[in-house]
Write a structure and sequence with these properties.
261 residues; alpha/beta; Rossmann fold; 7-stranded mixed beta sheet; two-stranded antiparallel ribbon; 23% strand
């Protein structure tokens, strides 16, 4: 049986996919003209992917997945949203790229596909949709080849605490809400209920360690891929508060390795 809260999120992300795919903030036309949606942080920290297999968890409609494909990776994207996967497959055809996209709850992926990958990747706004970090880490390890790399870059969990009064850093939730403005199109209010979970940075790291991954790096950043407020300043690919720096971390990244056999 599907997780009831995950099912709510599937319906909400089906709704949002229709909004996001057409929104200029996602730069779909630019991507089809050859632009990459990957940022310098993940490009530098993941490194050369040419000839490697890459599994992208929480891939939405595949812009980052297909950007890795353009860099020579053999890519597979997974997302819970039916509409997102439909758009990902459409983009694959339009961009004339090779990719596999699978509609599946990430926590249910074991048994859905049997492949092992050189890299498992996820990015930006994903850990908040994970209700069970233990299961999530098991999925990551299961789908990595021996000596394979897991990499994630995401918004720092402290940000949601500072942004929303009802969120506590140490209270996992779930946090349920509806009628909120969409993060991409602020004029659109999401009709379906969304459910998020709060994880500390320690929770995320320890779940990977408990799954027998070796942590290679943990980095924190004072910049964000999204503006926190209307007055934030854009410098290249990233946004900063008006004073030019942040007093607390806005994003983090983790790189980990699966042991050799």
């Amino acid at each position: 049986m599907p997780n009831e809260d995950h099912e709510k999120n599937r319906q909400a992300w089906n709704e949002m996919a229709e909004v996001h795919y057409k929104h200029p903030g996602y730069r779909v036309d630019e991507f089809l003209d050859g632009a990459s949606t990957l940022k310098s942080i993940e490009l530098e920290e993941v490194g050369d992917v040419s000839g490697l297999s890459l599994l992208h968890l929480f891939c939405q409609f595949g812009l980052d997945t297909l950007s890795w494909a353009r860099l020579g990776a053999s890519v597979t994207g997974v997302d819970i949203s039916d509409k997102s996967i439909e758009y990902a497959r459409l983009l694959t055809d339009k961009a004339k790229l090779k990719a596999q996209f699978i509609r599946c709850d990430v926590l249910d992926l074991i048994g859905k596909i049997d492949d092992r990958f050189d890299i498992v990747f996820q990015s930006y706004g994903t850990h908040c949709w994970t209700s069970d970090l233990t299961r999530w880490a098991q999925v990551v390890v299961h789908h990595l080849k021996p000596d394979g790399i897991f990499y994630m870059v995401d918004f720092h969990p402290v940000v949601s605490v500072l942004e929303y009064d009802e969120v506590s850093y140490f209270k996992k939730g779930p946090y349920r809400y509806s009628g909120e403005p969409d993060y991409c199109d602020r004029t659109y209010r999401i009709k379906n209920q969304l459910v998020e979970w709060q994880h500390t940075l320690a929770d995320i790291v320890n779940s990977l360690i408990e799954a027998d991954l070796s942590i290679l790096s943990l980095n924190e950043f004072d910049k964000s891929v999204d503006p926190g407020h209307d007055d934030w300043i854009r410098k290249g690919q990233y946004y900063y508060p008006p004073e030019g720096f942040s007093r607390f971390p806005l994003m983090f990244s983790i790189k980990a390795r699966k042991p050799k056999m």
